[in-house]
Amino acid sequence: MVILKTASAIKKMREAGRLSALALQVGGEAVVPGITTAEIDRIIHDFIVKQGATPSFLNLYGFPASACISVNDELIHGIPGNRVIKEGDIVSIDVGACLDGYHGDNAATFVAGETSEEAMKLLDVTKQSLYKGIEMATVGHRVGDISNAVQTYCEDRGYSVVREFVGHGVGRSVHEDPEVPNFGAAGHGPRLVNGMVIAIEPMINAGTRFVSTDSNGWTVRTKDGKLCAHFEHTIAITEDGPIILTDPN
What pTM does this model have? Predict the structure, then answer.
């Protein structure tokens, strides 16, 4: 069931989203060669807690950290640990914060130092596909219009769209209805209406679309070992157009 948000709820979600965006920004600034993924997670955790909020992901479904930190061929749900970030690594951080009963949820892929032209192109296409999806997040469109915009933009540029994981509604729970796939047919799926809040999150592979989950039950990586990227914003659907709630400004 899709839970529509009142103007008051969206105002609270703006604050939760802004805090989530700042936490992501702080984590991204920490992505430098020599740091461990656990250290990045600690920096993010401490920032969220100091703002009087709660890390949305900590213990969510049993996840043991405050942020998902995934490196190179790891797509999502990477568990922070003693892995040392190296020059040229690309690091996807997915983080949310809960404030006043509402969650924000956002993600981005960052570069440690200098990386390859191939990696930079992947990051640019994935990020741009997110904004192509956001452009379609207007009252009267359908979820499939968002999905198709993301898929078309990426596939036209030679990239693959992951099917097993999708975007979702956000609110008092991190994950709500509806599902928001990054693939599909325009004109299909639930209709977008005023008061919906959704997370649009392209998960894009440089190689084939296929992924697998590690033995830890969490870390998802590309089956062919090629690079992948992940960008996400929480968006409110309003009569005045989409509002990016996970905006740090």
Answer: 0.97
